[in-house]
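Tokens for chain A. Residues wanted.
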């Protein structure tokens, strides 16, 4: 894989894994994704930069890789490929396939045969994606739009999605009744100017000035239902800010999620229609969970805004390019919520 790097940038690092491991006990395989390669300045690291931005399947006993699929070769946008890998069996073309479904920061939903890594489907799950026109199903490589390819010394404008991706670490959930994935998404775009940077241990190693802002339509996030067989969005609920918390689907046909401006919502899993909402003390970036006690079902959520998307409010930053560009994307968040930290529990 060092042949896919020009120069010695491969020695410095990158391609880290943040967590979110999935395990198939029948195949004895562990699945996870890797992050961006080194500096955000792609001009310093020509080549595909393997094995960054990759979905790996590894033998749980030996650690050896059975297969790997690189989603974004030569990442020029910080589209870390670390989001969760959801293992489900999908009925496609008359067959039941043990699949892996992954909603990547680069804006594409990937569906692979988790036994061998064969690509089954790859389509955008947000209408704003423009850095690539499609994924070539024969090669598995993105067809990159040269207009949005970043390079040193050039301020490339209007790239969608922004560096935080159309989805970050906030987990999606699967509803076996409808067959839909309920996916929390971001809808931001960015301007991106890369510059040369030298590595120094213990100091930030970025090499880009980024400014993020709302995508087309003015909204900054959405919760969508994704049909994995058809490869399309079934419904989409736009949100004022990125949907930076996870989703929860229940057997009763209800999905729960929270918003950065502090609303905890319940929607019909099939239609997306709002069934109930509750204003929480702070914005929500946590993941809903449910449990049963004394014969009654409860749903719980942590309220307490923060994270990359809310860095301006959380850290008191105002410079538009601060927080790797995230501050500009949510400058008005303080008008809708406040800092805090509460656990809220509701009975059904």
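Reply:
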């Amino acid at each position: 894989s060092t042949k896919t790097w020009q120069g010695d940038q491969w020695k410095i690092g990158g391609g880290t894994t943040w967590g979110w491991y999935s395990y198939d006990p029948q195949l004895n395989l562990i699945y996870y994704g890797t992050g961006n390669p080194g500096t955000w300045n792609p001009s310093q690291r020509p080549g595909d930069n393997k094995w960054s931005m990759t979905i790996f399947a590894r033998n749980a006993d030996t650690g050896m890789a059975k297969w790997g699929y690189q989603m974004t070769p030569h990442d020029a946008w910080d589209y870390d490929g670390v989001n969760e890998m959801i293992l489900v069996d999908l009925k496609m073309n008359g067959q039941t396939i043990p699949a892996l479904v992954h909603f990547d920061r680069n804006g594409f939903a990937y569906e692979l045969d988790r036994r061998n890594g064969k690509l089954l489907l790859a389509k955008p799950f947000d209408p704003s994606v423009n850095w690539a026109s499609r994924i070539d199903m024969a090669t598995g490589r993105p067809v990159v739009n040269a207009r949005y390819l970043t390079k040193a010394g050039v301020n490339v404008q209007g790239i969608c999605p922004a560096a935080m991706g159309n989805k970050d670490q906030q987990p999606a959930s699967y509803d076996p009744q409808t067959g839909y994935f309920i996916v929390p998404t971001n809808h931001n775009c960015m301007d991106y100017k890369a510059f040369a940077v030298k590595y120094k241990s213990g100091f930030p190693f970025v090499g880009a000035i980024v400014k993020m802002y709302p995508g087309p339509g003015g909204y900054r996030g959405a919760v969508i239902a994704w049909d994995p067989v058809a490869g399309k969005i079934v419904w989409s609920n736009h949100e004022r800010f990125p949907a930076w918390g996870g989703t929860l689907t229940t057997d009763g046909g209800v999905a729960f999620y929270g918003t950065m401006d502090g609303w905890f919502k319940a929607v019909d899993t099939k239609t997306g229609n709002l069934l109930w909402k509750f204003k929480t003390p702070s914005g929500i970036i946590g993941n809903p969970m449910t449990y049963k006690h004394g014969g009654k079902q409860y749903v719980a959520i942590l309220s307490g805004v923060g994270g990359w998307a809310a860095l301006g409010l959380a850290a008191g930053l105002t410079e538009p390019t601060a927080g790797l560009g995230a501050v500009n994307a949510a400058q008005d968040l303080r008008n809708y919520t406040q800092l805090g930290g509460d656990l809220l529990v509701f009975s059904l």
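Helices lie at 311-315, 326-329. Residues 180 and 317 are 38 Å apart (CA to CA).
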